[in-house]
Amino acid sequence: MLPLSSMYRGLWRTAVHKLGTRGTPLSRVLSTCDEAPSGLFDADTIFALSSGHGRCGVAVVRVSGPATATALRCMAGLTRRLPPPRTALLRSITDPISKEVLDRGLVLWFPAPHSFTGEDSVEFHIHGGAAVITAVLQALGSVSGMRPAEAGEFTRRAFQAGKLDLTEVEGLGDLIHAETEAQRRQALRQMSGDLGRLYQDWSNRLKRCLAHVEAFIDFSEDELIEDGVLNQVDTSLKKLQAEMLQHLKDERRGERLRSGIQVVIAGDTNAGKSSLLNTLCQRPAAIVSPIAGTTRDVVETALDIGGFPVLLSDTAGLRDSADLVEREGVRRARERVEQADLTLVVVDCVHLPSDEGGAVASLQEHLRTVLQQRPNTDRCLLVLNKVDLLSEMQRRRLNEELSGAAGLPPVCLISCQTHEGLTDFLTVLHRRVQMLCGDPLSGAPTLTQARHRAHLQQCTASLAQYQRYRDRDLALAAEGVRLALTSLGRITGRVGPEEILDIIFKDFCIGK
């Protein structure tokens, strides 16, 4: 299979040959499209549909690379100068070979380096019909040095040009895929560079510390380094390590918000778990039946709870069974409860003991059975279902007993049949979900990717190496700082030895 650059070179030659056979002079063909030098085939210019697929009012086709100006002149009929930068110009979009008008739309010219990719770029704003889009893309493919962009290639070029660091690239990807308001806010904050600036500040401080240590190793004998440099490094690195460890103690809030909070509905058979799932997602997602053990597998649905993403799972009723299929369902239910960020323990309140203190004791025992551990009140909600079947006296007695009970998570009395208490339950649920994710706009930016956490853990471990070898072998201690800097640089994608040399010469005037 030919490389894309070779393929498009062949297409261009074919197009030139066809025009020549139609009687068009070759010199006119080349001057019309300002044929680029052969070197442009090595530095490909890429193009792609940047707006969504499907029929729409306006579609945006983006072009980036050294042959962008050529494409703009060919297809917008600009024989003289290019349009003013970042100014919309209404033009007829034509095929560069046949000169057929393909559409009439807007063109915007973004000369390097003031573009998303840092290269010459242009956008064609055309009508969103499938035939129009196809015709424009095929016409771009006939221009010399052009090829279709690969997935994420525009953003990759922006990163390589220094327009974005890796955290901003990931934030852009998260913003594109955001489905809830909280996800949008977190992704927008990361894309704007808040997280990258935090890590870059740490990188700059680490570079300075490493530069001072290496300068001390190389030049302390010549008395070119002032006293107390290593003590300053010790203080700076301890403070940095403390900040990183505090940053890691975020209880995975940012990661939960990015991927969705795992909320599991668990409890005995026929407690109303599937009814609760259907009530929350407002559709018959799970089969509801008076027959115990109807749910055998995990039923999942994605929800937006007050702007926060939730993956809600209905599970099989927890009981001993001789049925192999149901036993597997119970095993999967217990596995989901162990993995859950929040567990909704559903109880049929009709079957609670009526004697004084019996309901609380029964609920405590039930929690231990479902969670198989000491209940974490921050990760659990008690949902007492079928409250519509209780008499007024039973409700009053139950409320009085639960109001003064200790050792229980928040308790919500609801009826999936009549929707009684549902509003209060959703308020409590939203509060718990918000607590698990935090406010993406307040405080320091949080970790959003597992790779960030892994690199930061490696970074703190490397700083511990500095402290371990500081008084025994300063070279090994410096290596710990260097490894820490490398781990941190892997998060943003920016680290290099030349930056260390710059700081050494700036701070220490070596050889002066």
Would you give an account of this structure?
The chain has 512 residues and is an alpha/beta fold. The protein has three domains: 4-159, 2-Layer Sandwich (Gyrase A, domain 2); 194-250 and 447-508, Four Helix Bundle (Hemerythrin (Met), subunit A) (Up-down Bundle); 258-437, Rossmann fold. 48% of the residues lie in helices and 15% in strands. It has 18 helices and twelve strands. The protein has helices spanning 4-21, 26-32, 68-76, 130-141, 153-160, 166-177, 181-191, 194-219, 229-248, 253-259, 273-281, 324-339, 358-371, 392-403, 422-437, 450-469, 474-492, 497-508, and strands at residues 45-49, 56-64, 89-94, 101-110, 121-128, 146-148, 261-267, 299-305, 308-314, 342-348, 380-385, 411-413. It has a six-stranded mixed beta sheet. The longest helix has 26 residues, at 194-219.
Describe the secondary structure blueprint for this structure.
Layout: H1 4-21, H2 26-32, E1 45-49, E2 56-64, H3 68-76, E3 89-94, E4 101-110, E5 121-128, H4 130-141, E6 146-148, H5 153-160, H6 166-177, H7 181-191, H8 194-219, H9 229-248, H10 253-259, E7 261-267, H11 273-281, E8 299-305, E9 308-314, H12 324-339, E10 342-348, H13 358-371, E11 380-385, H14 392-403, E12 411-413, H15 422-437, H16 450-469, H17 474-492, H18 497-508
Parallel strand pairs: 1-6, 7-9, 7-10, 10-11, 11-12
Antiparallel strand pairs: 1-2, 2-5, 3-4, 4-5, 8-9
Helix pairs in contact: 6-7, 8-9, 8-17, 8-18, 9-16, 16-17
